[in-house]
Each structure stands twice: as structure tokens, then as C-alpha cells.
Task: structure prediction
Amino acid sequence: ETGVTQTPRHLVMGMTNKKSLKCEQHLGHNAMYWYKQSAKKPLELMFVYNFKEQTENNSVPSRFSPECPNSSHLFLHLHTLQPEDSALYLCASSPKLVYEQFFGPGTRLTVL
Amino acid sequence: AQKITQTQPGMFVQEKEAVTLDCTYDTSDPSYGLFWYKQPSSGEMIFLIYQGSYDQQNATEGRYSLNFQKARKSANLVISASQLGDSAMYFCAMREGEGSGGSNYKLTFGKGTLLTVNP
Result:
């Protein structure tokens, strides 16, 4: 498998649930990113990891918890989310921080 | 203030015709990069084309070209010979500080333009 993959592609969860989104890249990149894409709003950068170290937390609420165990995998742990957190969550990777970013297909999250 | 403005929420074009998608940007940084991404209904953001602020010539990639007008701060995407598969959301994005030794990696995106190609 090549490129950036994300699982699950669709997720419906209640506000009291705990779930995790997974991103995996097969490109040998060293930087990985989480973005949130809400309806009618620009793409918002959430977190950035460079060589497994978090370099950016864009004022994201603590109910979103990222984890980067290695340069190929990135997780987004979700708990006690709100309906307004419903969005498309996109993962991206790049060879280094300033290089072109390659995106995965996203996880469509619905919070009931 | 918005850094990236895409004024066209939706555009329609006839198959095989050319279409221009507008993008204006706002920055005081002399060194920046401009990107266009395509997002089909499947969700994946696909990189199309890149223009650096110091590039002398407009970027081209196959049927995609970027009409870069620095003084007007515009970076319009031109798609020639539209195909049905071009129907998608198109996003303009900017990264500032391109020449600063790698200190800025953040992409700022516009709200996008939904392009529909009619047969």
C-alpha cells in the first residue's frame, strides 16, 4: 500500500464515547499533520509532529489528544466530543516540515 | 483578515473548455509560496501546482497553470481543456517564510471553489 492512509473512513460517535483515528504513511516522511475541515470553513491545522516530536498545537481543545509513536504512524484520540467537532479530519505528511504535504483521504466524523 | 480569499463558491464549465479559479492572498512577507489543491468527493487533498514568490515564470503542470500576478497579490488557477474528472473542490493555500531557512511550514487555506464540469 502506498501514500497516506486513514482509518476509519467514517465514524459516528456519541459525546461520551472514546475513539481513535489512525493515520499511516508509507512515504518515508518525517513530518505528519492533523487538519480539521468543517463545512464552509477553511482547513484548520491542529497538530504537527516532526520526527515523532510535537512541534505545533494550534490551540486545540484537550478532548483531542494526538499520539505519534513513530514517523509512520499518527493517531488522534477523541473523548467527550461535542457535536460541533463533527468534521472531516485529514492527515498529511511531508518529507520535512517545509516540503510539500501529501494528504490522506480523511475520516468523516459525526458526533451525535 | 483572511490571508487567502477565494471569491467563487462555485463555478461551472463546459467539458473541453478552459476555466479560471480565482485566488487572492494577503501577506507582508516577501518570501512565500502559493499552492493549489484539488479535493474530490472522496476527500483526499491532491496537490496540483506550486508557485514561489521569487519565481520569474508562472508555474505550469500539464493542464494546470498558475496565473501569478504579484503586484495584485493574485494566484489564479487555470485549467485548460476541462474534463469531467476535474469536478471537485479546489483550494488555494499559502505558506509564508519560504526563504527563512525552514522556520515556517504552516499552510493557510482558502475556503475553496466547487468546480462542476458539464458534459
Chain A has no helices and eleven strands. The CA atoms of residues 19 and 78 of chain A lie 5 Å apart. The mean pLDDT of chain A is 92.
